[in-house]
């Protein structure tokens, strides 16, 4: 019987290829020739008693009328749903989709509220600002983008990802759908059922919020998921990571350097490395002196632990020795005390973002014991302040101590009294902005008249400029320091240095890169690593090796072969290494002489603090038997060697080593080879994950080829992920049968990079 049923099933499956197509929607299939799905347009949709103008809801029913036309909404949703299982298919491919987003796609079924921005052309960056605001307010909403694309658009879509800092996945396809013929629409649905569609690109956030809240109130088949939705609220410090971003370009040394300012007296530059959520402090020659910010989020504290979200324009106050800067996607103004190396929030003052006791607060949050004061602040955050900042970008200060804060598209101007830190007025529209501070903007841009325009390049897609000021989009991306101009080049991802008198471009390369520490996007959340059986599982492993040894002291000699066409810009430094011993191995984070290190990576500090919190103890005396000792050497044969030492007990254990190498393509002496296509392909191949598809790689490749410069000058980071798994047997016994024998072992691990 089983064989007979199986045979029938296979035959029916084969015959189905020749039958009329079926429309599948929400788990039910309707055969098209007999009955069709008809869309019923409702002029208004009622959600929680409110009429949502601009939205219409589609309900589907089977009718006797015979038609072969698909319901457009079913086509779009069915196409999106069918594409979730593959990163790249015949008619689609994904960008910004990583293993971190797989929880929404195909695991334990598809549950949740989806918001899709479907467009034939993403022309308006304001649409993305709305989606980011929804991500902040409803962090559990699944947000995606859908775009019709042609092969010629590949470079533009990558530029858009960087310019707008798009962190949600985007589905690209060449197939056309009727509902986005007008340009763009928002599609909101729950569990791929009952879509609510708005064809107005400028629909207000209030209407989107009401629609989402209405869907949240609907009963769900998954009660556990419903409880998660009910607990959502807008807390800026809840969003601590870029949840989906997996662009290989995030491993460039600079990832959209959008703004720069200077301290003339101390010869310092402040570079807003926007999409890395940090501000790099360097001198006029490029030597890095400090770094403000450790990861995306919203938290005050010292430079190494403070969290920012896309810092933008800045202003250095010489009297205070403080840098005031716009924390754009936190809608805040922050102040960095350069002498104390600490960050505090200047505006708004009521936000609870104190970095003190963050680990204890994290644990209390996991136990559901948050402070009642935070609950009050959550309730306040439900209502937006009409005068509050909303994605500020440019920051100017007048002689009368007035701060002028302008959004990136020159549509909103906020004026603030510098002394009180309170917003006085809000002005809408570029004409009003020109009227109030046009003269000050012109003064800041006048320096551009002294250098040739071909000294820099920048794509201006999706960026608005003020009338009569064609370079106003560069307002915060240039500064002067000691007879030189420094300009942010967002195509070549670098800072351009130009002599003001001669107009000649000078070489400007950042150095002392180890001071930047370990990149936050390679760091795993604490609870994942400690509680999960395979922490950091979302990151590909470059090398995994098993060893069977006797317990005791084990020296690990790690040797990394760097490809011949790649060269290290700087030797590997201790601050660019993260390591952890787990299982039966003794976990020690220090080295023989902790005081010899000027700075320890932020990732390692977090793990050390959690260890201290779990088991407070006095500082141990460092001996040869109780430390994990690391020594980094770069040999003449271009091999990176890392010596590590652990102490193990009987059982299984694992040593995880993460390192970041700063590299660039090697120049071959006496060679005139200038094949930029080959260089771009090599960089993308070196940085891309194994799961990247061909068309996705082609898109990144097309973006790199936009640059007119030599790609061999481009500095990038190569993440190195190595795991050594140890299986230690029982201790050997001494001749008396009572004492155990301690053994010393040494193992060699050879790693070959692609």
Structure explained in plain terms:
- InterPro entries: 6-blade_b-propeller_TolB-like (IPR011042).
- This protein is of the alpha+beta class and 754 residues long.
- It folds into three domains: 34-238, Glutaredoxin; 254-349 and 389-509, Thrombin, subunit H; 532-752, no CATH class.
- The protein has 13 helices and 40 strands.
- The strands form ten sheets. Strands 33, 34, 35, 36, 37, 38, 39 and 40 form an eight-stranded mixed sheet that branches. The protein has a seven-stranded mixed sheet with strand order 6-13-12-9-10-11-8, with helices on both faces.
- The relative contact order is 0.09.
- Residues 1-51, 58-74, 223-241, 355-360, 362-384, 525-537, 588-606 and 615-630 have low confidence and may be disordered.
| End-to-end gap | 52 Å
What percent strand? 25-35%
Overall SS class: alpha+beta
Which term fits the overall shape?
Answer: globular
Q: Domain count, please report it.
A: 3
Low-confidence stretches: 1-51, 58-74, 223-241, 355-360, 362-384, 525-537, 588-606, 615-630
Radius of gyration: 28 Å
The DSSP helix count reads 13
Mean pLDDT: 76
Helicity level, as a percent range?
10-25%
Assembly type of the shown chains?
single chain
Report the count of strand segments: 40
Largest sheet, if any?
8 strands, mixed
List keywords for this structure.
3 domains, Glutaredoxin, Thrombin, subunit H, 13 helices, 754 residues, 40 strands
Question: How do the helices and strands line up, and which of them pair or pack?
Answer:
Blueprint: H1 2-15, E1 22-25, E2 28-31, E3 36-37, E4 45-47, E5 50-52, E6 55-57, E7 62-63, H2 72-83, E8 92-95, E9 113-119, H3 125-137, E10 142-148, H4 154-164, E11 170-173, E12 184-190, E13 193-198, H5 205-217, H6 223-230, E14 257-263, E15 268-273, E16 278-282, E17 288-292, E18 295-296, E19 301-302, E20 307-308, E21 311-317, E22 322-327, E23 332-337, E24 342-347, H7 358-366, H8 372-381, E25 392-397, E26 402-407, E27 412-417, E28 422-428, H9 430-445, E29 478-481, E30 484-489, E31 494-499, E32 505-506, H10 526-531, E33 543-549, E34 552-561, E35 566-568, E36 577-585, H11 602-614, E37 631-634, E38 639-665, H12 676-687, H13 694-704, E39 716-728, E40 743-752
Parallel strand pairs: 9-10, 10-11, 18-20, 33-39, 34-40
Antiparallel strand pairs: 1-2, 3-7, 4-5, 6-13, 8-11, 9-12, 12-13, 14-15, 15-16, 16-17, 19-24, 21-22, 22-23, 23-24, 25-26, 26-27, 27-28, 29-30, 30-31, 31-32, 34-38, 35-38, 36-38, 37-38, 38-39
């Amino acid at each position: 019987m089983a064989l007979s049923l199986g045979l029938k099933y296979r035959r029916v499956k084969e015959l189905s290829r020749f039958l009329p197509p079926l429309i599948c929607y929400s788990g039910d299939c309707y055969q098209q020739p007999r009955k069709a799905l008809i869309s019923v347009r409702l002029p208004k949709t009622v959600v929680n008693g409110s009429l949502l103008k601009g939205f219409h809801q589609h309900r589907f029913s089977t009718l006797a009328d015979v038609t072969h036309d698909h319901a457009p909404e079913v086509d779009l949703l069915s196409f999106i749903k069918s594409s979730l299982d593959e990163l790249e298919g015949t008619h689609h491919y994904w960008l910004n989709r990583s293993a971190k987003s797989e929880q929404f796609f195909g695991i334990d079924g598809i549950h949740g509220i989806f918001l899709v921005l479907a467009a034939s052309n993403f022309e308006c960056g304001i649409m993305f600002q709305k989606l980011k605001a929804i991500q902040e307010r409803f962090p559990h909403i699944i947000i995606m983008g859908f775009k019709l694309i042609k092969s010629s658009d590949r470079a533009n879509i990558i530029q858009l990802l960087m310019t707008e800092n798009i962190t949600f996945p985007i589905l690209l396809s060449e197939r056309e759908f009727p509902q986005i013929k007008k340009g763009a629409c928002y599609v909101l649905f729950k569990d791929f059922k009952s879509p609510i569609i708005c064809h107005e690109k400028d629909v207000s956030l209030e209407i989107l919020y009401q629609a989402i809240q209405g869907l949240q109130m609907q009963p769900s088949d998954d009660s556990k998921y419903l409880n998660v939705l009910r607990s959502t609220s807008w807390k800026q410090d809840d969003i601590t990571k870029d949840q989906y971003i997996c662009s290989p370009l995030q491993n460039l040394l600079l990832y959209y350097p959008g703004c720069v300012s200077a301290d003339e007296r101390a010869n310092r530059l402040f570079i807003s490395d926007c999409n890395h959520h940090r501000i790099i402090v360097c001198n006029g020659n490029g030597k890095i002196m400090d770094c403000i910010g450790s990861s995306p989020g919203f938290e005050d504290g010292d430079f190494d632990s403070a969290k920012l979200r896309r810092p933008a324009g800045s202003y250095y106050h010489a009297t205070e020795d403080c840098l005031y800067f716009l924390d754009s996607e936190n809608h805040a103004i922050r102040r960095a005390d350069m002498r104390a190396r600490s960050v505090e929030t200047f505006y708004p003052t009521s936000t609870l973002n104190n970095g003190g006791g963050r680990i204890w607060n994290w644990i209390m949050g996991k136990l559901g014991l948050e402070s009642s004061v935070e609950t009050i602040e959550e309730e306040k955050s439900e209502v937006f302040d009409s005068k509050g900042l909303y994605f500020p970008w440019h920051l100017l200060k007048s002689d009368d101590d007035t701060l002028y804060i302008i959004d990136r598209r020159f549509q909103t101007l906020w004026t603030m009294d510098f002394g009180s830190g309170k917003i006085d007025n809000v002005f809408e529209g570029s004409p009003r902005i020109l009227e109030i501070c046009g003269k000050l903007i012109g003064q800041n841009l006048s320096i551009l008249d002294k250098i040739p325009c071909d000294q820099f390049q920048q794509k201006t897609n999706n960026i608005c400029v003020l009338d009569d000021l064609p370079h106003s989009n560069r307002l915060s991306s240039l500064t002067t320091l000691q007879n030189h101009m420094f300009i942010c080049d967002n195509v070549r991802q670098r800072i351009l240095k130009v002599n003001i008198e001669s107009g000649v471009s000078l070489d400007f390369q950042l150095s002392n890169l180890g001071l930047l520490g370990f990149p936050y996007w390679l760091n795993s959340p604490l609870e994942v690593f400690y509680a999960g059986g395979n922490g950091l599982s979302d990151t590909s492993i470059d090398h995994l090796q098993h060893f069977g040894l006797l317990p005791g002291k084990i020296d690990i000699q790690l040797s990394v072969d760097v490809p011949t066409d790649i060269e290290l810009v700087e030797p590997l430094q201790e601050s660019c290494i993260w390591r952890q011993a787990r299982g039966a191995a003794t976990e020690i984070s220090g080295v023989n002489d902790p005081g010899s290190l000027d700075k320890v990576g932020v990732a390692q500090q977090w793990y050390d603090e959690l260890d201290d919190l779990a088991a407070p103890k006095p500082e141990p005396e460092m001996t040869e038997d109780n430390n994990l000792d690391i020594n980094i050497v770069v040999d003449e044969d271009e091999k990176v060697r890392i010596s590590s030492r652990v102490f193990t007990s009987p059982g299984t254990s694992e040593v995880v080593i993460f390192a970041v190498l700063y590299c660039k393509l090697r120049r071959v002496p006496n060679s005139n080879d200038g094949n930029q296509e080959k260089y771009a392909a090599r960089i993308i191949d070196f940085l891309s994950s194994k799961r990247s598809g061909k068309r996705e790689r082609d898109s990144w490749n097309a973006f790199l080829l936009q640059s007119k410069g030599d790609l061999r000058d481009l500095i990038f980071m190569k993440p190195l992920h190595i795991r050594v798994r140890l299986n230690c047997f029982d201790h050997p016994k001494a001749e008396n049968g009572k004492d155990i024998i301690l053994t010393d072992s040494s193992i060699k691990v050879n790693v070959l990079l692609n």
